[in-house]
Specification:
By secondary structure, this protein is an alpha+beta fold. Helices cover about 35% and strands about 25% of the residues. The protein has two domains: about 5-60 and about 145-200 and about 345-350, Alpha-Beta Plaits; about 205-340, 2-Layer Sandwich (Gyrase A, domain 2). The strands form four sheets. The protein has a six-stranded mixed sheet with strand order 10-9-15-14-8-11. Strands 6-7-1-17 form a four-stranded antiparallel sheet.
Length: about 350
């Protein structure tokens, strides 16, 4: 769920210039410049709050759900490595904030730790403590630095989701910034009913990968779809799609998503990558449904409906569809939001009267 500095910087520049959050690739600036823009945005919002009054809202990210998601992904990664490497193991389980696995063969233990180290290389969020507890038992757990980096990423991605949802709701004047380790403070100049805004975040972004039903046309199904299916409209084309109600793969299995451009045509796309569990599910679903279309669904809108040409075993993919760069970024943000662990917890909402210091 890492948000690149260049995307965070561009989002803040866009917020300062137009008071909307638009993250564009291709801008790489230093932390000092990022901090300067944040200070300017904060000053602008504070001035508007003092003149107009408004709402102040504080959320807390779900740190318990984050820890659970991290160790679950670690367990799935360990399972994938030992299965693919044909390493004999037993007792694979989540325990005390980490993962235990018993591998009698010393070479097998070495192979597992080497693979995990290679996967974590260059990724501070994936650094691990590996403890040999004796008798073939390995205890694996994220380092304190990795846990802190994951929390920072969760806060940044939550801020991106908040900014995008405020923009989609027509809120054009807002300041969103981190507070402490796990909190996010929102300033809304001129908004005197904070409940209207907190309602926007009461539900989680719904992300799913669903099979498309070909038993009848979507137009025919609008008068009565088959059991277990429903008709959803396309995000761009507004055309109807007959899709399964149940997700074949959940959005929580996405480990990363970001905007980008195709190599030759430079067409804006949203790319994504699954965790170990999602990779296995995606490989199975695509192998079983070669030649058939499937739908990528965000908040009950079909973003894309590609045809499966071959089994996809690498755990990553791209979403295209004649998107603008802003749309590709929004889709990538929503994919990340759909994979955010837990929900935002409302800590405080307060109305600030004009003339009061925010």
């Amino acid at each position: 769920m890492t948000t690149p500095l260049r995307n965070r910087m561009t989002r803040l520049i866009a917020a300062f210039a137009t008071l909307s959050a638009i993250a564009l690739p291709g801008v790489a600036l230093a932390d000092s410049q990022l901090d300067k823009v944040r200070v300017k945005v904060a000053a602008l919002i504070a001035d508007k709050m003092e003149k107009l009054g408004g709402s102040r809202i504080v959320y807390r990210v779900d740190t318990d759900a984050l820890r659970e998601a991290v160790v679950t992904d670690l367990r799935d990664d360990v399972y994938k490595i030992v299965r693919e490497g044909r390493i004999a193991f037993s007792g694979l389980a989540i325990r005390d904030g980490g993962v235990d696995v018993k591998i009698a063969d010393a070479k097998g233990r070495e192979q597992l730790t080497r693979k995990l180290a290679a996967a974590a290389e260059g990724l501070p969020t994936h650094a691990l403590n590996v403890t040999d507890a004796g008798d073939g038992l390995l205890r694996l757990a994220p380092t304190d630095a990795a846990s802190a980096a994951r929390l920072r990423d969760l806060v940044e991605d939550s801020i991106a989701m908040i900014e995008q949802r405020l923009k989609d709701a027509g809120v054009k004047l807002a300041g969103v910034r981190p507070e402490g380790m796990d909190r996010i403070r929102i300033f809304l100049p001129g908004v005197m009913e904070p409940e209207q805004v907190t309602a926007i975040f009461a539900r989680k972004v719904k992300v799913g990968f669903r099979l498309i039903d070909l038993s009848m046309s979507a137009e025919q199904a609008q008068s009565g779809p088959p059991a277990g299916t429903e008709v959803l409209l396309g995000f761009k084309d507004q055309l109807p799609y007959l899709v399964a109600k149940d997700n074949a793969i959940e959005g929580g299995d996405i480990s990363h998503a970001g905007p980008g451009l195709t190599g030759e045509s430079k067409e804006p796309i949203a790319s994504f990558r699954f965790n170990g569990r999602g990779t296995r599910r995606f490989a199975h679903i695509t192998a079983e449904n070669v030649g058939k279309p499937f739908a990528i669904v965000l908040d009950d809108k079909v973003i894309s409906a590609p045809v499966i040409r071959e089994p996809i075993t690498g755990g990553s993919g791209q979403i295209s569809g004649n998107f603008s760069l802003e749309e590709a970024n929004s889709i990538a943000m929503l994919l990340r939001a759909g994979s955010l662990p837990g929900r935002l917890g409302l800590v405080e909402q307060q109305v600030v009267q004009p003339g009061a210091k925010p």
